[in-house]
Design goal:
The chain is mainly α and 251 residues long. The chain has helices spanning 2-16, 18-40, 45-63, 78-86, 91-115, 117-141, 156-176, 182-208, 223-243; strands at 145-147, 151-155. It contains nine helices and two strands; from the N terminus they run H-H-H-H-H-H-E-E-H-H-H.
């Protein structure tokens, strides 16, 4: 039931776009920074909540009210630096994740504004299909582990199965959009970026000795557990957009 509720809220926000999607992106990003903090220093939840509130304020100032401004991305360093100052251990870990989470949230909003519903749907579809295909192929075929030291359940067969699923998403979008065939290759690369987002969060949880990022969602853990792959994909797409001087980059 909780999974269905999340899906409905997410789909509705993506379709609506504008302020609704921006609110969701800001909220999810702030919560994930809080979850990152509690995994590292669960004994100080108040500090984590204050940092999450700061993330919400800073990210809101960058995504509401029009065009996004890359020159102000340095503001996203404020919370990582404050957290690193407060922490006595894992300072670099928190700094990296807190900064990356904010950039990823910013990237999702940027993607929705600049490219519209269709291409955000493409991005989300790749992440979802990669996860589903990877799970069923990996469970069916098994085989060598992809990265056993970090994520012992993931196999090479599941990883490649996810790439194949992403490629099929790319094929479908070539049929219904004006995208060229290069979208298929880009879909596979995005799939891999999402898998690396998943791996990164798994590494953090293993390092901190926790099974889930939080217990906010019954049966699903925390928001970080649900959105880690999407964040990896978002980070990569933001890099692509910057590299090709988006907006206006054509697929």
């Amino acid at each position: 039931m909780s999974g269905a509720v999340m899906a409905v809220i997410g789909i509705a926000a993506i379709i609506a776009g504008g302020v609704w999607f921006q609110i969701l992106a800001v909220f999810v990003t702030a919560v994930m920074v809080w979850e990152c903090w509690t995994m590292i220093r669960g004994a100080s939840p108040t500090s984590g909540m204050l940092l999450a509130a700061a993330v919400s304020s800073i990210l809101s100032s960058q995504v509401f009210g029009g065009a996004l401004n890359y020159q102000f991305l340095g503001l996203f360093l404020v919370v990582p630096i404050l957290g690193a100052i407060i922490l006595k251990r894992e300072r670099i870990t928190f700094f990296i994740f807190a900064f990356a989470l904010q950039i990823a949230g910013y990237g999702l909003v940027h993607f929705r504004i600049e490219f519209g519903f269709t291409w955000l749907l493409w991005l989300v579809s790749i992440v979802v299909v990669t996860d589903i295909a990877g799970y069923f192929v990996g469970k069916s075929l098994g085989g060598p582990k992809f990265w056993p030291a970090v994520s012992p359940k993931k196999t090479w067969s599941g990883t490649i199965g996810g790439w194949v699923g992403a490629a099929l998403v790319g094929v479908i979008f070539t049929m219904f959009t004006n995208a060229g065939w290069t979208i298929i290759l880009l879909s596979i690369v995005i799939s891999f970026a999402g898998q690396m987002g998943d791996i990164a969060e798994s590494a953090l949880k293993r390092r901190q000795g926790v099974k889930e990022s939080s217990t906010l969602i019954p049966g699903h853990g925390g928001l970080f557990d649900r959105f880690d792959a999407l964040l990896g994909a978002s980070l990569f797409m933001l890099l692509i957009a910057v590299a090709f001087n988006a907006p206006g980059v054509a697929f």
